[in-house]
Automatic annotation (TrEMBL), chains A, B:
Organism: Paracoccus alkanivorans
Keywords of this entry: DNA-binding, Metal-binding, Repressor, Transcription, Transcription regulation, Zinc
Domain of life of the native organism: Bacteria
Cofactor info, note text: Binds 1 zinc ion per subunit.
Presence of keyword Zinc: yes
Record GO cellular component, one term: cytosol
Family stated for the protein in its record: Belongs to the Fur family.
Pfam families for this protein: FUR
Cofactor(s) in the UniProt record: Zn(2+)
Cited Gene3D superfamilies: 3.30.1490.190, Winged helix-like DNA-binding domain superfamily/Winged helix DNA-binding domain
Keyword Hydrolase in record: no
Annotated protein name in UniProt: Transcriptional repressor
Amino acid sequence: MTPVRRRTLEILLETHRAMGAYEVLDRLAEDGFGRQPPVAYRALEFLVEHGLAHRLQRLNAFAACLHPGEEHAPVFLICRKCDKVAETSAPAVRNTLHDAAGEMGFTVERATIEALGLCPVCAEGRE
Amino acid sequence: MTPVRRRTLEILLETHRAMGAYEVLDRLAEDGFGRQPPVAYRALEFLVEHGLAHRLQRLNAFAACLHPGEEHAPVFLICRKCDKVAETSAPAVRNTLHDAAGEMGFTVERATIEALGLCPVCAEGRE
DNA sequence: CTTGACTTGTTATTACATAACATGAGAAGA
DNA sequence: TCTTCTCATGTTATGTAATAACAAGTCAAG
């Protein structure tokens, strides 16, 4: 865990939002780190590899992992209003997925499960 | 259903692979349609909106819908070797997802479930 | 002290996606 | 028939996301 990587994780944790790589990069640059895309991408890649962050495909964004270390099957609930990301664990979902794939002879190595919708807060207010 | 849209769908069906928008665009151009990105993106957007195709976030790509018309909860099995996409339906997965989200007060509007792995064919041969 | 693995940084380029505007065809209504 | 509206298609230009390829510094093992 190096300074850039630590700072990147801190940024993700502080905002608690789905963040684009370039958004992260801007913050890193403010703190004196490099201003080039690979700086952010490499740090984020590292965090993802080590289970400290996740990549959200739908938004082309990243979010800090809320359950690092634990063996978990993350499911993301992304609010389309405020971009906040709730991460929940639903082993049953994963199991069903693996079973269904297995029936077709397909070997699942990695899975992405993302739900887009409204969080409780935004659902209360007017849309 | 217009010529561009029809041709776009045909292309997706013919290849039966996850295709990037620019890949689709090249084929459309060969057939005399426009060469600019919006041509492909609009046609693909239309197909997705009308349930004739799906967008695969992990690959930034698109694939024809194999069960158009049916009310379905698609789950994608993407082979990382040959890029072929198998689309299966796993209502149980969706149900579990909706339930888990509901417990947290989250309203699911759309969900993306994609599995990356090896298809039976590629799993047989050497990786 | 030197080799090798690794991290960070750079420049440059590629890939993906959309904004904004112009044109033309076809339907709906005066 | 003519006008108007809608919508599909096409364009130019730009914005956003991601990676390739290389240079330089650190640090531990031998």
